[in-house]
Hints:
Number of strands: 7
Radius of gyration: 14 Å
Number of helices: 4
Largest sheet: 7 strands, mixed
Shape: globular
Order of helices and strands: EHHEEEHEHEE
Amino acid sequence: MIELRPMTREDLTAVMRLEEELFAPDTWTRAMYLEELGMPDTRSYTVAVEGDEVLGYAGLIAYPDEAHVATIGVTGTRQGQGIGGRLLDALLAEADTRSPVVLLEVRATDEATQGLYARRGFVPIGVRPNYYPNSGEDAVVMKRG
């Protein structure tokens, strides 16, 4: 059974493997995640696990005026099974306790993930050219309506 729980430092080895699988060359570093996990007042990170295996993870940055979906990813072998939706729903539930506005950036070429966000009420509001520094890919900015 897949469970969602708060991300811990002990999860970072698995999270970094998923980062490389899913987001290379624009991966976050272990140091970035350590910094994020050290700011629980404004950050919330969740992992989806089955037994001891981390299948996915997601992060939220939340301030009183707006929240940002910082990251969300599910291992390729388990995509399309609703795990990403569960992670996103957990982030949105947390965002609702902290902020009235939720924003995110998603790769312009990632139509599947844009569809996930659209099904949760997000609409595109703009484009950030060359947002992803190593690949140079554009990001679509979306806002929950």
